[in-house]
Design goal:
The complex is a heterodimer.
Chain A lengths: L1 E4 L2 E4 L5 E11 L3 E6 L6 E5 L3 E2 L7 E14 L9 E6 L7 E2 L3 E5 L1
Parallel strand pairs in A: 2-10
Antiparallel strand pairs in A: 1-3, 3-7, 4-5, 4-8, 5-6, 8-9, 8-10
Chain B lengths: L2 E5 L2 E3 L5 E8 L7 E7 L5 E7 L6 E3 L7 E6 L4 E6 L8 E8 L10 E2 L3 E5 L2
Parallel strand pairs in B: 2-11
Antiparallel strand pairs in B: 1-3, 3-8, 4-5, 4-9, 5-6, 7-8, 9-10, 9-11
The chains are: A mainly beta, B mainly beta.
Chain lengths: 106, 121
């Protein structure tokens, strides 16, 4: 089970934002982060807990190990307002997603 | 360009069946494990089913086990989801997603645009 926090967040352009994902048991590095905009498919941002997917801006970063992981956006841009999900693929079935964090404009 | 294109969604009555397809192009389909993920209206992502590259290994979420069947045809670069005994709570957008599924890399790298399944009388 993955628990994301916060479930929603209001921030301004230029802010630094951190989203946390906590696993109920130790998982290795099979932790990914996705961004989803309304009406669109999820988009891969980070895999292996900290590896940036090709083409994803460097303001996105991931860190963590064991049970605690974070997604950080260093300087929010207008296009970053979306919902973010973490996902574990360490032990399945089931493959699990966090409940999502909705990032809104303040 | 990588493309995953789902088809077969629509409106169906409870208890009936529906088959989703996902057509892949732009990558080596036979080297990727494949998954179905769904998203109910206004809700989060829910993994539904997994099939390995050779179809040897298959997993289902408990919520669909015994009702849904995942399959693939590598010769046709296609993934399928046969959904039987549909329930209202199966209403969702269904995405297919590809995973390189190697010892060093597991991630849903590629996603389709989604197919809407509405179960309603």
């Amino acid at each position: 089970q993955l628990t994301q926090s916060p479930s929603s967040l209001s921030a301004s352009v230029g802010d630094k934002v951190t989203i946390t994902c906590r696993a109920s048991q130790v998982i290795s590095s099979y932790l990914a982060w996705y961004q989803q905009k309304p009406g669109k498919a999820p988009k891969l941002l980070i895999y292996g807990a900290s590896t940036l997917q090709s083409g994803v801006p460097s303001r996105f970063s991931g860190s963590g190990s064991g049970t605690d992981f974070t997604l950080t956006i260093s300087s929010l841009q207008p296009e970053d307002f979306a919902t973010y999900y973490c996902q574990q693929l360490n032990s399945y079935p089931p493959i699990t997603f966090g409940q999502g964090t909705r990032l809104e404009i303040k | 360009e990588v493309q995953l294109v789902e088809s077969g969604g629509g409106l169906v009555k409870p208890g009936r069946s529906l088959r989703l397809s996902c057509s892949a192009s732009g990558f080596t389909f036979s080297r990727y494990s494949m998954n179905w993920v769904r998203q109910a209206p206004g809700k989060g992502l829910e993994w539904v089913a997994y099939i390995s590259e050779t179809s040897r290994t298959i997993y289902y979420a408990d919520s669909v086990k015994g009702r849904f069947t995942i399959s693939r045809d590598n010769a046709k670069n296609s993934l399928y989801l046969q959904m039987n005994s549909l329930r209202d709570e199966d209403t969702a957008v269904y995405y297919c997603a590809g995973d390189p599924d190697t010892p060093h890399l597991r991630v849903f790298e590629y996603w389709g645009q989604g197919a809407l399944v509405t179960v309603s009388s």
